[in-house]
Every structure is written in C-alpha cells, then in structure tokens.
Design a protein that fits this description.
The protein is α/β, with parallel strands linked by helices. It has nine helices and ten strands. Strand 6, helix 5 and strand 7 form a beta-alpha-beta unit.
C-alpha cells in the first residue's frame, strides 16, 4: 500500500492537488494522509497578556482546522467511491514543513502532493511559499507539485530534463519509472543545450541513465537552448503535450551554476503541468 501525504490549506488549489492524487493512483491501493498545519507565528515573542489573547485565536485556529478537515473527509467518503483508497486527516500545531518532515518519517510516506498557489487574504498559510520550503528541506522525499487549475485526466508522456553531468541512482528515478509504468506512459529524456558534444563523463552518465531506464518506454532527445532553460523545457512540453515533468533537486545543478538561473523554483511555479521532484540520494550510497 502506498502512503501519500496531502498538505492542505483548504484552498481551491489544495483541493485540486487532492483530486489529482486520487485520479493518478486510482488503480493503486493507497492511504492518503490529509494534513493541515497551523501556527500563530507571534505566539512565542509576545508578553503574557498578549499570549492570553492570542490563546483565544489559537483555540479558534485549532477548531477551524479540525472542522475543515472533517468536511474534507466527509466529502471524500461520500463522493470518492474507490475501494483502493482510504483517508485519514491530521491537524498539527506547527509549521507546515516541520509537520511534513515528522509525518514522512513516522508514516513512511511515499509521496507528497502539493499545490503551487494556495490561500490568500484572511487565511494564514500561503501554500506557494511553503512548497518552496518543503522542496528545499525534504530533499530525500518525492514531491508532486500540481499547478493551479490543472485538470488531470491521463498520463501518457513524461518529460525528464538532464544535462548528463550527474550519475543518477536507480532509487532516485524509481518514483518516475513506477508512475510511468502504472500508466504505460513514455519517458522523454531531454538534453537542453547550446551544443550537444558530450564529454566523456556525460557519455558515461548517459549510458548509466539508459541502464536505469531499462524496462521503461523511453527515448532520448536534444532540445536547443532558447532564452532560458525553463522556457526551452516549457516549449517542448507544450509542443508534445506532455502530462508530467520530472526533475531532480540536486544542489548547484549545471544550469544554475553556469547560467545563474534558479531553474528548480521557476519550473515549480511556472509549469503548466504537474512537476514530480525526485528524491535526492547521496552518490556515496
């Protein structure tokens, strides 16, 4: 059974991430953990009287969190008729990233599914900024980021950009290859560059990548560098009507080091299709 963590701030985008997850894994036995984290940020720096006043707000946040989670659970149990799926709600008084970190360890979570644009106005949590924090702090976990208003229907084509400067471990690629096999999808490995003359290291890594993808339906492609990497990738995704983008979050990537472009953050927030951030594993393992 897969365990999938669904953080929510009760926004439409968070709902969309939930719907995407249950559709994506419709044929798989899954336990979905729906998490809401709340934290009155000023609690620790105020005096006693102010803390007492804030305690009232804290209590109301706790009640609101439980109440809204109950509504989600009631809706899913009533409208989501899938014997493969079960749901559990969790309300935590802490930051979102700390709550997620604790749960992924305690529950041995396989995948975190989040939205990119969350609540605004009166609600405290901005899911977008929290998504960046989660991506930075939970590098050993798979995170699927779902764009606002994206309507998932099927998974036919997966795009995996690489510069071949790093050797990929099999476990790092497993979330992508499993998902592709589940939907019988094609993985298109794309190399974005100005020129495509590979060094000996790149050639070796390309060969290792092909070994890792053995058994998957995949193909290798060279994509000309346009104005920036993100634009080049997005244009390719649009042209072939891909359904999922997968990237690895390793530090000081080739693109960011050479071009000075924050590729990962841009891809997470500008992509028109869901982005699967693969877990990073130490190359020494």
């Amino acid at each position: 059974m897969k365990k999938i963590l669904l953080p929510t701030d009760f926004s439409d985008n968070a709902w969309n991430a939930i719907f995407t997850a249950v559709k994506l894994y419709a044929s798989v036995k899954c336990k979905f953990l729906i998490l809401h984290a709340y934290e009155p940020k000023a609690m620790n720096i105020l005096g006693k009287k102010s803390q007492q006043r804030l305690g009232v707000i804290y209590d109301s946040l706790e009640k609101y969190s439980t109440q809204e989670l109950d509504k989600i659970l009631e809706y899913l149990n009533k409208n989501h008729n899938n014997a493969n799926h079960s749901f559990e709600t969790i309300s935590k008084s802490d930051t979102l990233e700390k709550s997620i970190k604790e749960l992924t360890t305690a529950e041995e979570v396989d995948l975190i599914v989040m939205g990119t644009q969350g609540a605004t106005g009166a609600k405290e949590i901005f899911l977008g900024s929290n998504t960046v924090k989660v991506l930075k702090q939970l590098k050993n976990n798979s995170v699927l980021v779902v764009p606002k208003d994206y309507n998932f229907q099927k998974l036919k084509t997966v795009v995996f950009p690489t510069d071949y400067t790093r050797m990929y471990k099999k476990l790092e690629l497993l979330p992508m290859t499993e998902m592709a096999k589940l939907w019988k999808a094609t993985i298109k490995v794309i190399h974005v560059g100005v020129e495509f003359k590979l060094s000996n290291v790149q050639k070796t890594n390309m060969g290792i990548l092909e070994e890792r993808l053995e058994g998957s339906d995949y193909s290798l492609h060279e994509i000309a560098f346009e104005a920036n990497v993100e634009q080049s990738v997005e244009q390719y995704i649009s042209e072939i009507r891909a359904d999922l983008l997968t990237v690895l979050r390793y530090q000081h990537s080739f693109w960011e080091r050479i071009i000075g472009e924050p590729v990962i953050k841009k891809l997470a927030f500008h992509s028109k299709v869901p982005v699967l951030f693969l877990p990073e594993q130490s190359l020494r393992k």
